[in-house]
TrEMBL record:
<feature type="binding site">
    <location>
        <position position="41"/>
    </location>
    <ligand>
        <name>substrate</name>
    </ligand>
</feature>
<feature type="domain" description="PurE">
    <location>
        <begin position="3"/>
        <end position="152"/>
    </location>
</feature>
<protein>
    <recommendedName>
        <fullName>N5-carboxyaminoimidazole ribonucleotide mutase</fullName>
        <ecNumber>5.4.99.18</ecNumber>
    </recommendedName>
</protein>
<dbReference type="GO" id="GO:0034023">
    <property type="term" value="F:5-(carboxyamino)imidazole ribonucleotide mutase activity"/>
</dbReference>
<keyword id="KW-0456">Lyase</keyword>
<comment type="pathway">
    <text>Purine metabolism; IMP biosynthesis via de novo pathway; 5-amino-1-(5-phospho-D-ribosyl)imidazole-4-carboxylate from 5-amino-1-(5-phospho-D-ribosyl)imidazole (N5-CAIR route): step 2/2.</text>
</comment>
<dbReference type="GO" id="GO:0006189">
    <property type="term" value="P:'de novo' IMP biosynthetic process"/>
</dbReference>
<keyword id="KW-0658">Purine biosynthesis</keyword>
<keyword id="KW-0413">Isomerase</keyword>
<dbReference type="Pfam" id="PF00731">
    <property type="entry name" value="AIRC"/>
</dbReference>
<dbReference type="InterPro" id="IPR033747">
    <property type="entry name" value="PurE_ClassI"/>
</dbReference>
<dbReference type="InterPro" id="IPR024694">
    <property type="entry name" value="PurE_prokaryotes"/>
</dbReference>
<feature type="binding site">
    <location>
        <position position="11"/>
    </location>
    <ligand>
        <name>substrate</name>
    </ligand>
</feature>
<comment type="function">
    <text>Catalyzes the conversion of N5-carboxyaminoimidazole ribonucleotide (N5-CAIR) to 4-carboxy-5-aminoimidazole ribonucleotide (CAIR).</text>
</comment>
<comment type="similarity">
    <text>Belongs to the AIR carboxylase family. Class I subfamily.</text>
</comment>
<feature type="binding site">
    <location>
        <position position="14"/>
    </location>
    <ligand>
        <name>substrate</name>
    </ligand>
</feature>
<dbReference type="InterPro" id="IPR000031">
    <property type="entry name" value="PurE_dom"/>
</dbReference>
Amino acid sequence: MSQRVLIVMGSDSDLKVMKGACDALDALGVEYEVRISSAHRVPDKTARLAREAAAGGFGAIIAGAGGAAHLPGVVAANTVLPVIGVPIESGGLGGVDALYAIVQMPRGIPVATVAVNGAYNAGLLAAQILAAGDPELGRRLVAYRESLAAQVEKKDDDLQR
Ligand code: RP5
């Protein structure tokens, strides 16, 4: 059975951004589960979700949060599955607060951090991680890259007319 992706976010207010990860995984035919779990408001639940993820058939985790965004780091501390962090713009600092909180992990507990609100790329990266053990998914990713290239070529051709 193909591995799934676990998508966790700190609040339902993150959903509009984190939907980007769902869109990318849908486009590639990768199954996922979406959960709301805050590192601060429900710390025990967050740790449990991360600890049980590998046994639950997940091969990668995407964790998105804004503000003092400890969620991806706490998830990473509780699993050796690869964790992708999505800094989310919220409050007055434009997402830089979340970016710094997620990207500056201590040596030993890595989180692969994407751009502020970069949930779509998080979905792609999770798919690329799973593709290491799923050649068919790898072929779909190659086709996606080819479609990107074709779009650029079409725009260039249009410009030459
Ligand atoms: C973070 O605080 C969440 O990830 C969200 O981005 C931000 C605001 O949360 P709410 O107050 O909208 O629940 O924990």
